[in-house]
Amino acid sequence: MNLVHPLPNWRRGFRRVTKNGCLFFLAAFLLAGCGRNEPPADLVIVNGKEPESLDPALITGVAEMRIVSSIFEGLTRLDPVHAAPIPGLAEKWEISPDGRIYTFHLRTNLTWSTGEPITAADVVYSWIRALNPATASDYAGQLFYLKNGEDFNSGKIKDPSLVGVHALDLFTLRVELNEPTAFFLDLCAFATLAVVPHQTIEKYGDRWLMTRPLPASGAYELIAWRLNDKIRLKKNPRYWDAANTHLDTADFLPVGSPTTALNLYETGAADIVWDKDLVPTELLDVLLKRPDFHTFPYLATYFIRFNVTKKPFNDVRVRQALGLAIDKERIVKKITRAGEPVADNFVPPGTARYHSPKGPSYNPERARQLLAEAGYPGGKGFPRVEYMFDASAGGAAKLHGKIAIEIQQMWHDELGIDVDLHQVEWKVYLANASKLRFDVCRAAWVGDYNDADTFLNMWMSNNGNNRTGWKSAYYDDLIRRADKENDLAKREKMLQEAETMIISKENPIVPIFFYVGFNYFDTNKIKGVYPNILDIHPLNDIWRVEPKGIAAKTAATAKNN
Questions:
Q1: Please, which residues bridge with residue 446 across strands?
Q2: How far apart are CA 505 and CA 499, in angstroms?
Q3: Which residues constitute the domain of residue 163?
Q4: Which long-range contacts (CB under 8 A, 24 or more apart) does 130-135 make?
């Protein structure tokens, strides 16, 4: 492989940036952040939980991705209206007639926020880094569509030059896929495929995110990260589309309490609040009637995971029994109360080119039969197990806690089994889920792109987002064959068979409900936020009707001059 510039000692950049280690160093370094006397930001966003990391190769949560997508860009980005892929760092591309070869042409004016040029070799480095097993990226599977991508990630091949991504010159990238992939341009906009600074990662290793200035390929630079306070981003003046980036600064607040989020918004301390989880459920009926509270269809599913490597959940009859004993209608009417559809299948309605098979619904009588067949009649002899869920702001009064209590009661009443509730902080929850340190846990999945594949390939045996311990060679083969199929009807049939396995036959999960997208902001003040099925709202497309913060000061200075 003849790269435009060499990548010496490339393996140094792949040492695993451990999530706890990263935060340990950040706690010491980033708390310095920006000064307390700093000017107000032009936009303040309540963003949910404290980010676990801002490394595009490591993040898995929506809150992190909102921030990272502003700092690091990929070959494509997502249109704010329809969330469809449009040119990003690549200004154009050609696709071979067989759909397997993509030739991307990067913009010739690309530079990092620190002034160095961004080239095709930077893309190669970023993708290989995400694929390298030493990086331990849960989303490495997004690059398995590349030739030899999966084999490189599994360690079957060691030479990164055999992976299907090559820099032909400074601004031309050749990508070879295993098979035609209808959503590949969508993947190119996903955070895992974003372009990261090899020069910084190689120099600083695990601590690369702590460098200041941190080279950014996206519309914004990371100025400060004060843990449990805020993350501040500032407009990157060297971004290729800086002329159309409206806001100078933006703050992202890590707030898990719905009451706190609403108070910040009502007092003007925050401009936008993302997510329904940040709405006090006791006020939902009233707030939904307000013009600044917005709902829309959303590709996301709330579900529970079983750890199938532990007894008694290694018995499919137990998993099926617990699923059939959950009255999902009661949960959406009593707890969530925003019009969420009950989920008897996993892939949400509205997914492009796909219709889900019907899954099992509430049937407590059949649940009791299955539990008895598994050796636990009336719940006798069933071991004491734990249901793990994450804490937003503490206490069972929050949404996940309320759902957990409801499911706990249903399993007790219908099956005669007792389950302990185990509430943990977000970072502990993620670590436990990844390492299978749980019995049953709550979970949610937001579509990364509008295709059933984003909901179904995560259950493949080697996918880092599986987190159930369930493996099926037949399922893996179904997904791989579906990925290769050009006939959309045949592809849909294979995907439906795969979904039937996870919701009706093997049941490593139990879908509970489909989310309704939800956010709140005043459309008279904030523009550029559009309802779309992926709930994607690029920061560089958002603007204020009246300037605030640094933008207001700049406007006032210009007016006075």
A1: 300
A2: 9
A3: 10-235
A4: 130/56, 130/57, 130/192, 130/193, 131/160, 131/163, 132/11, 132/14, 132/160, 134/11, 134/14, 134/15, 134/16, 135/14, 135/16, 135/17, 135/57, 135/58
On whether residue 230 sits in a domain, the answer given is yes
pLDDT digits (tens, 9 = 90+) for 299-334: 999 999 999 999 999 999 999 999 999 999 999 999
What is the three-class DSSP state of 174?
Answer: strand
Residue 416 resides in a domain: yes
Q: CB neighbours of 428 closer than 8 A, spacing ≥ 6? A: none
Which tens digit of pLDDT belongs to each residue from 63-74? Answer: 999 999 999 999
- Alpha-carbon gap, residue 543 to 443, rounded angstroms: 33
Q: Where is 388: in which H helix or E strand?
A: strand 385-390
Tens digit of pLDDT for each residue in 337-378?
Answer: 888 999 999 999 989 889 999 999 999 999 999 999 999 999
- Evaluate whether 378 touches 418 at the Cβ level (below 8 Å): no
Decide if 395 contacts 257 (C-beta within 8 A).
no
E runs forming strands in 213-318: 220-226, 230-235, 249-254, 272-274, 293-306
* Residues 208 and 312 placed together within one structural domain of the fold: no
